[in-house]
Specification:
This protein has a single domain, classed as Rossmann fold. The protein contains 11 helices and 10 strands. It has helices at residues 40-47, 70-76, 93-100, 109-114, 116-136, 152-164, 182-197, 209-215, 233-238, 240-247, 249-253, and strands spanning 2-11, 14-24, 29-33, 55-60, 63-64, 78-80, 170-174, 201-205, 218-223, 226-231. It binds adenosine-5'-triphosphate and magnesium ion.
Length: 254
């Protein structure tokens, strides 16, 4: 479904991605892990069109999306969440989802004035759809509350729900469990599995290894801008390079 071919990224003189290649198959929950600063979020920024790669190619469903701007990448069917929460705090949860759905509106500004019944009907359908999306992350009861009043964990879930609003084929999730307590994390894992069962392919960046081991079918490990290992969670867990990347060589031999 998604193929990264030899992606490099330089910031000034600093190479932060070096020959990154991997493939995500349709239906997968693909984990992207690695220590702080390894380059994981930069990979998401490049896939989603926020950054241009210095070299390399990105192929999505057989079309070349390298260097496409973010809105085109979204139209192609890729959606993402951000490591730093970006919900609209003064809007209700429902409105946050509706904003994300804007590209699904079919009526023009003309029909808004001349075809009010049609508009009303569409608005009702959109609201129902937004409520369905909120139900996936168990937030329907708070639909009319302001997003700013949610707990940190709930705001992360709202971000996830909003990313679903554009009806993506591939969903990129950047550290969804950050700041969540164990109960919230457990619920999040079930929600991500449910989203995946509903037909979405998922690429997940996460530091919580319990989440990665619990829901990912395949994992790629990054360190210093390179993929250093990939395979099933069980295979990854045993990899010497991975253990070293996480614990540090010195600590391990000490
Ligand atoms: N816009 C930028 N300009 C310059 N350097 C950047 C920029 N964005 C990221 N970097 C650098 O690129 C490297 C990779 O950063 P990135 O955010 O991709 O890491 P990460 O794996 O997501 O880390 P974390 O787990 O802490 O989120 C870091 O050294 C970072 O400082
Ligand atoms: Mg990051």
């Amino acid at each position: 479904m998604l193929k990264l071919e030899n992606i490099a990224k330089d910031f000034g003189g600093l190479r932060v991605l070096n020959g990154v290649s991997f493939e995500i198959s349709e239906g997968q929950i693909f984990g992207l892990i690695g220590p702080n600063g390894a380059g994981k979020t930069t990979v998401f920024n490049i896939i989603s069109g926020l950054l241009k790669p210095s070299s390399g190619r990105i192929i999505f469903n057989k079309s070349d999306i390298t260097n496409q701007p973010p809105h085109v990448v979204t139209e192609q069917g890729i959606s993402r969440t951000f490591q730093n929460i970006r919900v609209f705090e003064d809007m209700s949860l429902l409105e946050n989802i509706l904003v994300g759905m804007h590209r699904l509106f079919s009526y023009s500004s003309v029909s808004m004035f001349f075809d009010l019944p049609k508009k009303k009907k569409e608005e009702k359908q959109l609201r129902e759809k937004a409520m369905d999306i909120l139900s996936i992350v168990h937030l329907t009861e708070k639909a009319d509350l302001k997003a700013g009043g949610l707990s940190y964990g709930e705001q992360r879930k709202l971000e996830l729900a909003r990313a679903l609003a554009t009806e993506p084929k591939l969903l990129l999730i950047d550290e969804p469990a950050a700041g969540m307590n164990p109960a919230e994390t457990e619920e999040l894992m079930n929600e991500i599995k449910l989203i995946n069962k509903n037909g979405y392919t998922i690429c997940l960046i996460e530091h919580d290894m319990k989440v990665i081991m619990g829901i990912c079918g395949y994992v790629a490990v990054m360190n210093f801008g390179e993929i250093i290992a990939e395979g099933s969670p069980e295979e990854i867990r045993k990899e010497k390079l991975v253990i070293e990347a996480y614990l540090g060589k010195d600590e391990k031999s000490a």
